[in-house]
Amino acid sequence: MSRPRILIAEDHTLVAEAFQKLLEPHYEVVGVVGDGRTLVTEAQRLNPNVAVVDVAMPLLNGLDAGRQLKSSLPHIRIIFVTMNEDHELAAEALNAGASGYLLKTSASSELLRAVQEVLRGKSYVTPRISEQLLGDFIRDPRPDRPAKHLTMRQREVLQLLAEGRSMKEAADILRITARTVAFHKYRTMEEFDIKSNAELIRFAIRQGLLKAG
User: Fold this and answer.
1) pTM summary value
2) Burial class (CB in 10 A: 0-12, 13-18, 19+), 2
3) Which helix (H) or strand (E) holds 165?
4) Which residues make beta-bridge pairs with 103?
5) At what angle do helices 152-162 and 197-206 cross, to 10 degrees?
6) Whole-angstrom distance between the N-terminal and C-terminal Cα of the chain?
7) For residue 73, what pLDDT is reported?
8) CB of 5 within 8 A of CB of 49?
9) Per-10-residue mean pLDDT for the chain, 213 residues long?
10) What is the Cα–Cα distance from 174 to 147, expressed in whole angstroms?
């Protein structure tokens, strides 16, 4: 009987190696990638059962990569891992189709448990975050009011520019024109009242598109 197939997406080599060492005795680790765009292409090629994904990755963040994966590979189970303890980010990850959500400060046994649970068709959220999510729901069970949201293309452009890439470089990565990149940049700045590139970077961090610092 073949073992479940795991793909790891993590841009810190030491963390990726630790995940691989932990999982390999139990599962087939079919690959390790270091950015969100490679995750999407490799997942489509390798067709894993589970993807263990860092939320904050270069080129394309984990949440947006996860959305693309769930669109092209609906069966895939995604477990997000992050240093960010913001439970609103966890809620967004679950809305993006995550089956699991862990903090990098969690015990290693939690990752094994999360993989076991999602392979059984269940969900796993680390207790510290799940308690906060439940607390929010108890305080206000009503859905949030509609708010302005970035489009997927705006998110892609914003992340690449906030990472320091030029408009031409971003255009090459996204396979669009530099003029289109500029359009999305300035449309975003106008819609969200962003006055400078520094504010744009801070906005990208708040959106979970970029690691703080």
Assistant:
1) 0.73
2) exposed
3) none
4) 82
5) 120
6) 45
7) 92
8) yes
9) 91 93 95 94 95 90 89 92 78 83 87 93 83 51 55 86 87 88 86 84 80 59
10) 26
